[in-house]
């Protein structure tokens, strides 16, 4: 018989690639991970790992067992979901959210949950969508709030269930003294954008290229509140989502982008968890909170014309 705990370690190694990464993710020491995987090899009666330079990699037998491990973990999760459906609140719901969701909709969602399911324990961590979706697959979280930009579709694995929360308009953000009305007028400005590798960064750069220029990205920051500070002070321009201003007056001037694009905000969970009453309740609360926060939306600033030549949201998918 195989221990589920050890099977998960093999599954994690297949996802993360190194023993050190598995140890960090699960708060174990690398030596503990090695010992447990060595015990799993004894249970299997076959070599599961082999040296690869200073690291290890899965043998063909290890790959086969890791694939089965994923199915075992899905089955275990389905059992837990069915048990939780009998009485919500038996398990903690672990949620990873992007920054704007953490600020704008999480507080209201938690208030709704306290009214609907008092006693339900929900743990919230702020994480970039790319990292959150990876950790969802790795079973670090039960639910993720993530985003998708026009023309930049994310992979949709069969074992992940997605549900839209709604759309969130994206606009140019300028200092209040900045008189620019078109994206193409900002070719010589300093830009602030999210880090390389994020969907937000890729999408923002594509908008600039569609308008005929390469942006001068002088500031690369993950914290959108830092973007706002630089833009309000006149040191940079940027592209920011409306959700950032929920319930507040923007300290910057907002100008419509070509084509009035909007990102999609969605929740994602593992397909094996679908039907868990506590997860369904958290999803419903997030959806209600999003709708309350997102409506009414700010209307585009009058007189801000659009660049007809830059309305291209169908660039290559990422």
Written overview of the protein:
- By secondary structure, the protein is an alpha/beta fold.
- The protein folds into three domains: 4-84, Winged helix-like DNA-binding domain superfamily/Winged helix DNA-binding domain (Arc Repressor Mutant, subunit A), CATH 1.10.10; 90-166 and 263-294, 3-Layer(aba) Sandwich (D-Maltodextrin-Binding Protein, domain 2), CATH 3.40.190; 168-262, D-Maltodextrin-Binding Protein, domain 2 (3-Layer(aba) Sandwich), CATH 3.40.190.290.
- The chain has ten helices and eleven strands.
- The chain has helices spanning 4-16, 19-26, 30-44, 60-86, 99-104, 106-116, 129-137, 199-210, 224-232, 277-294; strands spanning 49-52, 55-58, 93-97, 122-126, 143-148, 160-174, 190-193, 216-220, 238-241, 253-256, 262-270.
- The strands form three sheets. Strands 3, 4, 5, 6, 9, 10 and 11 form a seven-stranded mixed sheet that branches. It has a two-stranded antiparallel ribbon with strand order 1-2. It has a two-stranded parallel ribbon with strand order 7-8.
- Strand 7, helix 8 (199-210) and strand 8 (216-220) form a beta-alpha-beta unit.
**CATH architecture annotation name of the largest domain:** 3-Layer(aba) Sandwich
Total domain units = 3
CATH class of the largest domain: Alpha Beta
DSSP strand count: 11
Form type: globular
* Order of H and E elements: HHHEEHEHHEHEEEHEHEEEH
Main sheet summary = 7 strands, mixed
Q: What fraction strand?
A: 15-25%
pLDDT averaged residue by residue: 86
What is the helix fraction of residues, given as a range? Answer: 40-55%
Could you tell me how far the N terminus lies from the C terminus, measured between alpha carbons in angstroms? 41 Å
Helix-strand category = alpha/beta
Gyration radius, rounded: 23 Å
CATH superfamily of the largest domain: Periplasmic binding protein-like II
Indicate the low-confidence ranges by residue numbers: 297-318
Task: Kindly identify the CATH topology of the largest domain.
Answer: D-Maltodextrin-Binding Protein, domain 2
């Amino acid at each position: 018989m195989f221990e589920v705990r050890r099977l998960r370690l093999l599954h994690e190694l297949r996802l993360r690639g190194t023993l050190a990464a598995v140890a960090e993710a699960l708060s174990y020491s690398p030596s503990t991970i090695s010992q447990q995987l060595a015990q799993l090899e004894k249970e299997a009666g076959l070599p599961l790992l082999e040296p690869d330079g200073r690291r290890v990699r899965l043998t063909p037998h290890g790959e086969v067992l890791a694939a089965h491990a994923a199915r075992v973990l899905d089955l275990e999760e389905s059992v837990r979901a069915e048990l939780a459906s009998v009485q919500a609140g038996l398990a903690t719901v672990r949620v990873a959210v992007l920054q704007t969701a953490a600020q704008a909709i999480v507080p209201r969602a938690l208030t709704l949950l306290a009214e609907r399911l008092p006693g339900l324990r929900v743990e919230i961590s702020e994480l970039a969508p790319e990292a959150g979706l990876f950790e969802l697959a790795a079973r670090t979280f039960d639910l993720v709030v993530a985003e998708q930009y026009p023309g930049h579709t994310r992979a949709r694995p069969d074992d992940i269930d997605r549900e839209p929360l709604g759309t969130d308009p994206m606009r140019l953000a300028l200092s209040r003294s900045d008189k620019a009305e078109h994206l193409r007028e900002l070719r010589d400005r300093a830009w602030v954008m999210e880090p390389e590798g994020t969907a937000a960064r890729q999408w923002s750069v594509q908008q600039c290229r569609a308008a005929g220029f390469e942006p001068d990205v002088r500031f690369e920051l993950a914290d959108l509140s830092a973007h706002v500070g630089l833009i309000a002070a006149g040191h940079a321009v940027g592209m920011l989502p409306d959700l950032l201003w929920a319930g507040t007056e923007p300290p910057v001037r907002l100008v419509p982008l070509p084509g009035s694009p909007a990102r999609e905000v969605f929740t994602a969970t593992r397909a094996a968890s679908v039907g868990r009453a506590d997860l369904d309740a958290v999803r419903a609360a997030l959806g209600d909170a999003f709708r309350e926060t997102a409506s009414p939306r700010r209307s585009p600033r009058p007189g801000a014309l659009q660049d007809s030549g830059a309305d291209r949201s169908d660039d290559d998918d990422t």
